[in-house]
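Supplementary notes for students who missed Thursday's class. We covered one full example, reproduced here. Read the sequence, then the structure, then the short commentary at the end.
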Amino acid sequence: MFENIPNVKLGLIAVSRDCFPRTLSEMRRANIAKACEGGVYECPVTVENEADMRKAVADVNAAGCNALVVFLGNFGPETPETLIARYFDGPCMFVAAAEGDGDLINGRGDAYCGMLNCSYNLGMRHLKGYIPEYPVGTAADIAKMIADFIPIARAVIGVKNLKIITFGPRPQDFFACNAPIKGLYELGVEVEENSELDLLVSYKAHAGDSRIEAVCADMAQELGVTGNNYPELLPRMAQFELTLLDWAENHRGARKYVAFADKCWPAFPEQFGFEPCYVNSRLAARGIPVACEVDIYGALSEYIGACVTGDAVTLLDINNSVPKALYDEDIAGKFPYVLRDTFMGFHCGNTPACKMCASRAVKYQLIQNRLLEDGGTPDFTRGTLEGDIAASPITFYRLQCDSNGDLRSYIAQGEVLPVATRSFGGIGIFAIHDMGRFYRHVLLAKRYPHHGAVAFAHCGKTMYEVFRYLGVADIAYNQPASLPYPGENPFSR
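Structure (token representation):
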């Protein structure tokens, strides 16, 4: 199986204004490479003019670099340094040298000033370049900037080379999963649309696949004795897993990476004989998100989170409030949150096993059982991975295209509390400071759908930079009480 998360190889290109010491820029470049301990490719071409620029870009391309650090070791040449971002096909970070490693006569580089002109010229040419919060520093400082840039570059590269594969239209009356296609194309994402019938045909073609036994064994090992409630169901689920993996391999086409968005109800369980949730969770654990209910922007959001963290992610409903009695018993006085800071994040069973408590198990989908099996003995509504989501820091986020065709996003950091939910599905009690106001003035006011992506780390800073690099103008977050939202009634606070 192909790797579904990009591997970033960074190139480091030093630039130099011809009236400044070239050796100063080269010395400072070498110091950065040393501070990175081999984590970057040091381009030997120092860029002073456009011919140098073409040579440098050719050199890093030949070295297999897919992201660049453009380093102003001195003032820098405005035109060639910014044209690197045009001629190199990948994300570029622009940083500049701080003074202090030489005298202030022949050892002064004025890169602090040159960075202003670099930014100005990037804007004049409408070129994208990532500029850190404070882009001027020593070799050690810039090595830290480079480390912070890697997950940003990974996400940008991933999105640019992503195909989202869908099966079926969204479920009836689930317009919240509508996907205005314009925003995806603006990001460079491709979409392959298929019917549920296409998927069913492929699934049936995998009957008797020689690999099913090995996948069943892997599932059984993952679930353990207590989690494997329906061992007779494993071959069907293994057959489906192989169907999706083969589809990804055979349909990625010109793209390197894939994500799925499937119509998982109401017809799916009756026709396939199980719920797809557990299989979806296993693919998500491998960096191949499978979004529920044909939520294309949910799939995209999940994929970005997987690139940022290099870890499994999930997609959940921002689902239900925490009962006050539960809050009073298990949260109040034990954790620094008010009741409105808390909510339950839920979905049927798509969260990877590695992010759930040890008691998780394959079960049946209660809601679908009521709908499709009239609440009787579960048969084809089995196949969800259920249990409480394990305590963890989290980032709750989403990238969405609104009704005007504009991309917008939100990011909120918090945690999953180590508190029993007393409920069903893949579910956890989430706590985010000022969630009540965020719910009203971002999620409701800006018309976001009910699905949110979850990364199991505090990665809001990186996620914000990714969205900004991708050109998302509206990036909302959970503002503290001291900072009112636009339109927030001052008398209600």
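Commentary. The longest strand covers residues 392-401. The chain has two domains: 10-159, 161-492. If anything here is unclear, bring it to office hours.
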